[in-house]
Each structure stands twice: as structure tokens, then as C-alpha cells.
Design a protein that fits this description.
The chain is α/β, with parallel strands linked by helices. It has one domain: Glycoside hydrolase/deacetylase (TIM Barrel). The protein has 9 helices and 11 strands. The strands form 3 sheets. Strands 6-5-4-1-11 form a 5-stranded parallel beta sheet. Helix 1 runs parallel beside helix 2 and helix 1 packs parallel to helix 6. The longest helix has 19 residues. Zinc ion binds next to strand 4. The site of zinc ion has 5 residues, from strand 4.
């Protein structure tokens, strides 16, 4: 692997054997096609970004399907887990599985404690979501954790400051792009959600250096953010969850509403 090879971080959630009603799901066979595209891109650093595979939430398929396929193709994944969901939700990993991912050469990062949108958290809630979750992960996995991904992709300057205070060094967003910024001493790292591409040729276009595919996604994301600014984070998230029928995040939204 060439350390100078520019990187595109990809974001996945669930990798299932069959079709799923969950919107952020890829089938194992499609994920394997993505891994084949990645393998060919890695052969040509002048034309393609090097893909890095990241996973949010901690779904059980991260251990069951995703990690074994990653290993088959020689990739180390970066798994962001919602610490409070481990061993408390039936479809999510248990601690021994998270620990095993790390033992198998994959990296583990934090995705909050309860998946609350960090932009909507009070200071006390930020402490729980950022610090309590980090300490829990570190204790259970037996390693230090310096990376966090933003639940629901939401972040702002206040959230970044809180992440820095909590001891993180890398913040992974859901904003498409490749340019890593340093803000408040943190690396702010963009990622492309797998819901924005599916067919292998779409991924290949995204990985192509100087293609317009990424800039088109950035424009789309900009429009989405503008709508979110107008509606406010809570209302936008509630509408989004209703549209997607995404139960886990709908519950998170309900928590937010209850906490108002
Ligand atoms: Zn998430």
C-alpha cells in the first residue's frame, strides 16, 4: 500500500446476504463487487483514489459479512460503533465481536453512546456521547480510540471543540469529498455514503481522480444542508426518518424530542 496514494473514505452500514428494508444496506455480493473495483483502483495510484472502507453503527453484519469479505480482499476496515447499542440491541454486535474485529487487524472508532445527533446535545449529553462512550469502547476493546464518526452526519464548530476536549484526533463526517481539513487540532475527514453509489461502475467513477462524480455529490450535499439549515436539525431528521422508515434512528429522534 502506497502511503502517498490519495484516499477516498467510503461509508457503509449493513452488509446482508439478501435484500433488506433498511435503506443503508448493501448485499454481500454487491459489496464484493465494490471490493473488486477497489482492488483494481489500488493498482493505479495515478488514476484512482485508494478506497478506505468504514462502517457506522455496529450492526451484526459488520462482523458477520463485512469483515470476512474485507479480509478476503486484504483490506482493514474502520468500524465505528454506537457504544450503547452493543449487547443491548439484538441486531448489533456484542463486545466479543467488536474485540475480535480489532484482533483481526481492523480498526475501531466511536459513533456516540446512543446515536443522538451531536448538534442537538446539551453539554452534559455531549460528555456522555463523546467521553463516556470512548471510555467504554477503550475498556471493552483494550485499545485507545482516537476516531469518531458523526451520528446522522451532523457536526458543527461546537461539536468539534467537544470532540477535541474528549481526546479525539480524527472526526469522520458524511460530507462527500477527499480533502482532509485540520480544524481545532482535529483532522476532519470526509466520506461518501454507499447510498450515493451502488453499481460497480458508479464506485469506479467516484474513485477516478479528477472525475466530476464527486463534485456532483458535493453540490447535492450542499443543497441538502441548506434545506436542513432552513428546517432545523430536529425537524429535518424527523422527516428524514419518516421517509426512510428507519426504526433505529426514528427512536433516536424520539429520544431527542422527549429530551426537549
Ligand atoms: Zn449512524
Amino acid at each position: 500500500m502506497d502511503a502517498d496514494h490519495p484516499v477516498l473514505h467510503l461509508m457503509y452500514h449493513r452488509v446482508t446476504n439478501g435484500p433488506s428494508a433498511h435503506p443503508y444496506t448493501v448485499t454481500a455480493s454487491r459489496f464484493e463487487e465494490h471490493l473488486r473495483v477497489a482492488a483494481s483502483a489500488e493498482q493505479d495510484p495515478t488514476r484512482f483514489f485508494r478506497p478506505v472502507f468504514t462502517f457506522d453503527d455496529g450492526h451484526s453484519s459488520n462482523y458477520g459479512q463485512a469483515s470476512s469479505l474485507l479480509t478476503k480482499y486484504g483490506h482493514a476496515g474502520l468500524f465505528f460503533v454506537t457504544a450503547g447499542w452493543i449487547e443491548t440491541r439484538p441486531d448489533f454486535m456484542c463486545w466479543s465481536e467488536v474485540k475480535q474485529l480489532y484482533a483481526n487487524g481492523h480498526a475501531v472508532g466511536c459513533h456516540g453512546l446512543t446515536h443522538k445527533l451531536l448538534t442537538c446535545c446539551s453539554e452534559a449529553e455531549l460528555y456522555r456521547e463523546l467521553t463516556v462512550s470512548k471510555e467504554l469502547l477503550e475498556r471493552k476493546v483494550g485499545t485507545s480510540v482516537d476516531a469518531i464518526s458523526m451520528p446522522g452526519g451532523r457536526w458543527d464548530v461546537r461539536v468539534l471543540s467537544a470532540c477535541a476536549r474528549a481526546g479525539y484526533r480524527r472526526v469522520f463526517t458524511s460530507d462527500p469529498g477527499t480533502r482532509i481539513e485540520v480544524r481545532q487540532g482535529l483532522q476532519v475527514i470526509p466520506r461518501v455514503n454507499s447510498s450515493l453509489y451502488d453499481r460497480p461502475e458508479e464506485l469506479r467513477r467516484l474513485l477516478t481522480v479528477n472525475s466530476s462524480a464527486l463534485s456532483r455529490l458535493r453540490v447535492k450535499q450542499g443543497v441538502k444542508k441548506s434545506i436542513r439549515r432552513v428546517l432545523g436539525d430536529r425537524l429535518y431528521h424527523r422527516l428524514w426518518c419518516v421517509v426512510l422508515g428507519w426504526r433505529d434512528h426514528r427512536e433516536a429522534a424520539a429520544d431527542l424530542i422527549r429530551s426537549e
